From TrEMBL, chain A:
The lineage of its organism: Bacteria, Pseudomonadati, Pseudomonadota, Alphaproteobacteria, Rhodobacterales. Residues 3-293 form the Hcy-binding domain. GO terms for biological process: homocysteine metabolic process; methylation; tetrahydrofolate metabolic process. PANTHER family: METHIONINE SYNTHASE. The keyword Coiled coil applies. This is 5-methyltetrahydrofolate--homocysteine methyltransferase. Residues 295-336 are annotated as: Disordered.
From TrEMBL, chain B:
SUPFAM superfamilies: Cobalamin (vitamin B12)-binding domain (SSF52242), Methionine synthase domain (SSF47644). It comes from Rhodovulum adriaticum (Rhodopseudomonas adriatica). GO terms for molecular function: cobalamin binding; metal ion binding; methionine synthase activity. PANTHER family: METHIONINE SYNTHASE. Residues 103-234 form the B12-binding domain. This is 5-methyltetrahydrofolate--homocysteine methyltransferase.
Length: 336, 234
């Protein structure tokens, strides 16, 4: 076990990951619709500033600007032939910064979903998904990331395909899904489903968990679901800074730095060992989170009521498991 | 789980058992069976429009309700929509020939600057499943493309989708442009996408925000019905 993340997990109780990528780049003037990944080459200073924002705010782990840097997404910008290059540069910019930070920092190569629906419901085959992720993984590896970081996945097969790609690239990996639909992912995966699936993978991730989704409260309920499944594997919590609100013609996330500080401590109490933010989480939020994690004592696992009291209510009555979960009113009458 | 009965022979079922069975087959996403059921009803002399409303749309309503209630998820809904499509493939030419009433027509697209399309595709499929005609403009759609398509297609409904907080404000630009041209009230405007909410829909002047594809279908139906009621009699 020689990789940086494993070593840090072995010596620390918790690690702080970074915040938003997209939201922070939009604040630097990225136009919606443009591929953020092109900035790796066109505006590297902005990407350095993005990474530095996380590191200077106390993040132990930051993600590279490569979320949509796979052939399936880049083809929408006619940049599908630049996968290797754009990933490599995203990683190199991060590597340089981490190596001069003066403390140990994990550079995590972000790998977001392909955006395609997998067979048999959609057009993307498992083997194509592996190929798409593998190409990206090789670029990130070449640029020097410490670990691959698969995130915002909703389909089980896509998660598995990314894991297989990590294996092909010979890289350790972490994987998180986005639980945004009544406690499940868009494709119906519950927290328990993911915890069980991860433990059965032939090449399991170093850590797994949840990112994005709805609000901070929902995300912590999902983290509790992972912990309740009895996993020994480190759990990742990367929630949004509240919920987007539309005011005076622009959007902002309603989670304050104080709320995210509460969220970070609650996430640790729920059982997460890698704690960060997602959309809307700025360096200001990260500083408040770091300070809270360092100064507030760990506590017992909070009840759902305590979470709702501090962070706001849940978006759905249940997380899709247990007796409160909705069940179909009809019985199937025919053998399949 | 109890041992279930052997495969049913659809053609041996009387109408009042076949129709609920087709609903179940839609729910289970069995496209060959749904197409077979449609053919049997046609052979028995059912009008195409009756098959559409009583056998298919009613079945998809159950799918939509369970999706809305968090019982079914996207994979099951896509399969049900595919099964619906198989049935519609047989009915569509016949519906046109017989001059059957139309549910309405929707022009749908993901807004300018946004390239996400899973949600938009799902709404399109569910709307088709409910019997609407759907014209899909794809991703990265600007105001002129929406407005041209609405006129060209003589549509009733405009559907706009966005997955990014940075692209959702473009919906307001489209609605404002429609208002400038004096055509805003000619159409029902529905908006949706993960970062949106009802407050946002109201703030930009849409008729409704739709939380998911099932809600979009229900909302479209009720707005179309309201419009028909407002039309002068005769």
């Amino acid at each position: 076990m020689t990789d940086t993340l494993s070593r840090m997990l072995a010596s620390r109780d918790w690690l702080m990951a970074d915040g938003a990528t997209g939201t922070n780049l939009f604040n630097m003037g990225l136009s919606s619709g443009d591929a953020p990944e092109l900035w790796n080459v066109e505006k590297p200073d902005n990407i350095r500033a993005l990474y530095r924002g996380a590191v200077e705010s106390g993040s132990d782990i930051f993600l590279t600007n490569s979320f949509g840097c796979n052939a399936a997404r880049l083809k929408l910008h006619d940049a599908q032939n630049r996968v290797r290059e754009l990933n490599r540069v995203a990683a190199e910019l991060g590597r340089d910064l981490a190596d001069t930070a003066g403390r140990e920092i994990v550079v995590a190569g972000s790998m977001g979903p392909t955006g395609e629906i997998m067979e048999p419901m959609g057009p993307l085959s498992y083997s194509s998904a592996v190929e798409i992720f593998h190409e990206q993984a090789e670029g990130l590896k070449e640029g020097g990331v410490d670990v691959l970081w698969v995130e915002t996945i909703s389909a089980p097969d896509e998660f598995k395909a990314a894991g297989e790609a990590a294996k092909l690239a010979g890289m350790p990996w972490c994987g998180t899904m986005s639980f945004d639909t009544a406690g499940r992912t868009m494709m119906g995966v519950t927290a328990t489903d993911l915890a069980e699936m991860v433990d059965k993978l032939p090449y399991p991730p170093l850590a797994f968990g949840a990112n994005c989704g709805v609000g901070a409260s929902d995300l912590l309920r999902t983290v509790q679901g992972f912990a309740a499944a009895g996993t020994e594997r480190p759990i990742i919590a990367k929630g949004n800074a509240g919920i987007p609100r539309y005011e005076d013609g622009h959007i902002h996330y309603d989670g304050t730095p104080e709320l995210m500080a509460d969220y970070a401590v609650l996430a640790r109490d729920c059982g997460a060992r890698i704690i960060g933010g997602c959309c809307g989480t700025t360096p200001e939020h990260l500083k408040a989170m770091r300070e809270a994690l360092e100064t507030r004592p760990a506590g017992p696992r909070p009840s759902l009521d305590e979470i709702a009291g501090k962070l706001g209510g849940f978006s759905s009555a249940s997380d899709g498991t247990g007796e409160a979960a909705p069940a179909p009113a009809r019985n199937r009458r025919r053998r399949r | 789980m109890a041992e279930e009965e052997d495969d049913l022979i659809l053609s041996e079922l009387p109408d009042d058992e076949l129709v609920p069975q087709m609903g179940d087959d839609l729910y289970d996403g069995l496209k060959d069976e749904v197409a077979e059921g449609v053919q049997i009803l046609l052979d028995r002399g059912w009008a195409p429009y009756r098959i559409l409303t009583e056998a298919l749309v009613s079945g998809m309503t159950v799918v939509g309700n369970d999706f809305r209630d968090g019982i079914l998820f996207v994979p099951e809904v896509l399969q049900a929509a595919n099964a619906m499509k198989a049935g519609m493939g047989l009915l569509k030419p016949l519906l046109a020939e017989t001059g059957a009433p139309k549910m309405g027509k929707m022009v749908i697209g993901t807004v300018k600057g946004d390239i996400h399309d899973i949600g938009k595709n799902l709404v399109g499929m569910m709307m088709e499943g409910a019997g609407f005609d759907v014209v899909d403009l794809g991703i990265n759609t600007d105001a002129d493309e929406y407005i041209d398509a609405l006129a060209r297609e003589q549509a009733d409904i405009l559907g706009m989708s966005a997955l990014l907080t940075t692209t959702m404000p473009y919906m307001k630009i489209v609605i404002d442009t429609m208002a400038e041209k004096g055509i805003r009230d000619d159409y029902i405007v529905l908006v949706g996408g993960a970062p949106l909410n009802e407050e946002f829909g109201k703030a930009i002047g849409a008729d409704a925000y739709c939380r998911d594809a099932a809600v979009a279908v229900e909302t479209a139906k009720s707005f179309v019905a309201r419009r028909h009621n407002q039309m002068p009699a005769g």
